[in-house]
Amino acid sequence: MFHNDPFVRSPREARIAERAERLSRLFAGRAAEHDRDASFPFENFEDLKSEGYLKLTAPAEYGGEECTLYEMVLSQERLARGDGSTALAVGWHVGIMLHLRTVRTWPPSLYERLCRDVTNHGDMINSFASEPATGSPSRGGKPQTTAVKTDGGWILTGRKTYSTLSPILRRFTVTAGIADTDATGEFLVEKSDRVRIEETWDTIGMRATGSHDVILDGVFVPDDRVIRGPGESKNAKAPDDGAGWLLHIPACYLGVAWAARDFTLRFAASYRPNSLPGPIADLPHIQRLIGDMEQELIVARTFLYSTAERWDRFPEIRAALKPELGTAKTLATNAALSIVDQAMRIVGGSSLSRSLPLERYYRDVRAGLHNPPMEDAVTRMLAQRALNECRSDIENE
Q1: Radius of gyration of the chain from Cα atoms?
Q2: For residues 102 and 241, is the Cβ–Cβ distance under 8 A?
Q3: Fold of 127-228
């Protein structure tokens, strides 16, 4: 089926896409149960591990596949067709691994250990930064989690929210405020009896991501696991990659919308109410809705993939691509919302039934509104760039 997708451009990309599609079919059979129970899909991650998916973006020098941003988007979009929760959750891992490979801000020995654990043992990583009092870290709030210096390391105390993958991770990074200063640091935390997961994740959408609260109760972090200490500027040693790795988010939501589109096409082509001579797909207003869905999916995918390709091809402009990267996310999220809504209009009242996947798709895509970057921040970036360009033109006249 992949030769029909214009975004699959090579045999390597076809292999990447085929693996994700194979996993997607497995996950689709389990998605409804995990959604209903808000349970973490451990078996999905065993499958990801056995298929080598967890080393998708790890560097080749340590045994990873070293996929590009474009290839990650291609893979993640397909994975989400089977289960949005699993795709979004593993997306944080493969996205962060791509980011770390690009910027190399970790101490070299610590980074090598992480990469080898990912490629040899199927370990994963995520960064826990959100807190009840600060909201999204993208808004710039200072963490209330505190780090206190002690002999040989630091003692961390606090609570992190939206901690996706928390049930399965052996290690994760956290940001913390340095006690009695205005500085912050970033620390690699290993699971221990001082780390507790409070199962708070009970939402309307993306219910199986395991995004619970993580409680740090005096966790000791040795000095050799400090990623960024007090007085060190964030990414001071690194190139600005524009946070391109966050394209795993729009890829996920377009994948869910794609699944809704596929289900709806099959439904429309086969559903024959006795009031009609043929299937509802023959009706002009149904075809109009289908055409609208197709148009939105094509536009959003084209912009997403073209932006990912530019990020891969031109490293020197990655920081300048931030407005485009943000636009790819907002365009994809809003398109996904619209596509699923139109799909439900086509299917009608039965689309609300839990026996069909559409109501789950409808709930899942709404979560995209609350993933970074936020729409207002993207709009502000675009406006500021346009105004700066205008002012520069005026000055040069």
Answers
A1: 22
A2: yes
A3: Butyryl-CoA Dehydrogenase, subunit A; domain 2 (2.40.110)
